[in-house]
Design goal:
It is built from 9 helices and 8 strands. Helix 3 links the parallel strand 1 and strand 2. Helix 2 runs parallel beside helix 3 and helix 7 crosses helix 8.
Length: 289
C-alpha cells in the first residue's frame, strides 16, 4: 500500500529487494547505495516483521541505514505484526535516540480491532509536530478513541496476551504439522508473525510450483471455504502460500482440508487454475481483508 499511496500522489518509488537466499533479510548496504545515488529520496520504509515473509529486520541492519553518513531523510519502520514476535523486538524506544526514525504500530492485528482503523506512530517531537501539521483536519472519532483506550486497559491487555499466546501455540503446531503433509515444501522467511509462508510442491519432482499452489488456493477458497493467500508471484516466493494462524478448531479444519486437497492435486483431480489469476486472488483477499 505504500507504493500505491506513492503512485496516487505522483511520488516515485525506488525498490530495494530483500535477500531471498537469507530468509528475506534486509539488505542495508544495497539500501544505502540507493540513498547515496539519489539524494531526492526522502523516506525509507521497512516492514518488521515483513508480509508475507514473517521475517524480522535485524536491529543492526536498521541501524546501518539510520547511520548513513550523507543521506538526510526518515526511516519508517512498520511494526504492524510485532506483537507476535519475541519480547524486545520492537524498536519504538529507538526514536528517543534516533530523530530520523518513525516506528508505526496498529491495533488491527494482535488486538483484533481492524474495524476501528487505528494505529500509532512513535517519533521525535519534531517529526510528530510535522505529522500533526500535515494531518487531515478531522481528529480520531470519539467511538474509536474510546475503544482504543479500553483495548489498552489492564484487563483488555490480558485478554490480548492470552489470545496472542493461543495464536503462537497454533503457529508452532503448524510448523510441526505442515511438513508431515505430502506435497508441502519448506517454510520460507521467518516465524515472527501470525502467518507462515510455505512452499507447495509439484508432486512428481518435488519442486515449488505456482500452478499447484494456485490450484490448492482456489480449491480451498472456492470449494472448502478455507482461505489462504497465493503469493507465488512475489520475489522469492515461487509456489508459496501465506497461511494465517487461526484457532485450534480452524487449524484442525485447515490441516484436514489441505491434506485432502493436496492428495487430489497429486492424483490430477483438481481443475486448472482460473485464467485470470489476479482477479481470483483479489476476490479471496477481499473476503479476509
Amino acid at each position: 500500500m505504500y507504493a500505491v499511496s506513492a503512485q496516487v500522489n505522483d511520488v516515485q518509488v525506488v525498490h530495494v529487494p530483500l535477500d531471498v537466499k537469507n530468509d528475506f533479510a534486509l539488505q542495508p548496504d544495497l539500501i544505502n547505495e540507493k540513498l547515496s545515488a539519489d539524494p531526492n529520496v526522502k523516506l525509507v520504509y521497512i516492514c518488521s516483521p515483513g508480509n508475507p515473509t514473517a521475517t524480522l529486520a535485524k536491529k543492526e541492519d536498521v541501524q546501518k541505514v539510520l547511520e548513513h553518513p550523507t543521506w538526510n531523510g526518515i526511516v519508517v519502520l512498520d511494526e504492524a505484526y510485532v506483537d507476535f514476535a519475541p519480547e524486545g523486538t520492537s524498536l519504538a524506544e529507538w526514536v528517543v535516540e534516533w530523530p530520523n526514525l518513525v516506528v508505526m504500530q496498529t491495533l488491527s492485528k494482535a488486538f483484533g480491532l481492524a474495524g476501528i482503523r487505528l494505529g500509532a506512530a512513535f517519533a521525535s517531537p519534531e517529526v510528530a509536530g510535522l505529522l500533526n501539521n500535515l494531518k487531515a483536519p478531522y481528529n480520531i472519532s470519539s467511538p474509536t478513541s474510546g475503544l482504543a483506550q479500553r483495548a489498552l486497559g489492564k484487563e483488555s491487555l490480558e485478554v490480548m496476551r492470552g489470545n496472542r499466546a493461543k495464536i503462537i501455540e497454533q503457529r508452532e503446531r503448524l510448523v510441526q504439522e505442515l511438513p508431515k503433509i505430502n506435497g508441502m515444501g519448506k517454510f520460507k522467511g521467518g516465524y515472527a508473525s501470525n502467518f507462515l509462508l510455505v512452499e507447495v510442491l509439484d508432486g512428481p519432482q518435488g519442486k515449488p510450483c505456482n500452478e499447484t499452489a494456485l490450484q490448492v488456493y482456489e480449491t480451498m477458497a472456492g470449494q472448502k471455504g478455507v482461505v489462504v493467500r497465493f503469493r507465488g508471484k512475489e520475489l522469492g516466493c515461487e509456489g508459496c502460500l501465506r497461511i494465517t494462524v487461526g484457532t485450534a478448531k480452524e487449524v484442525d479444519r485447515f490441516l484436514k482440508e489441505l491434506k485432502i486437497t493436496l492428495e487430489e492435486a497429486q492424483k490430477g483431480k483438481l481443475g486448472a487454475p482460473a485464467a485470470n489469476e489476479e482477479k481470483e486472488e483479489q476476490k479471496a483477499n477481499d473476503v479476509i481483508a
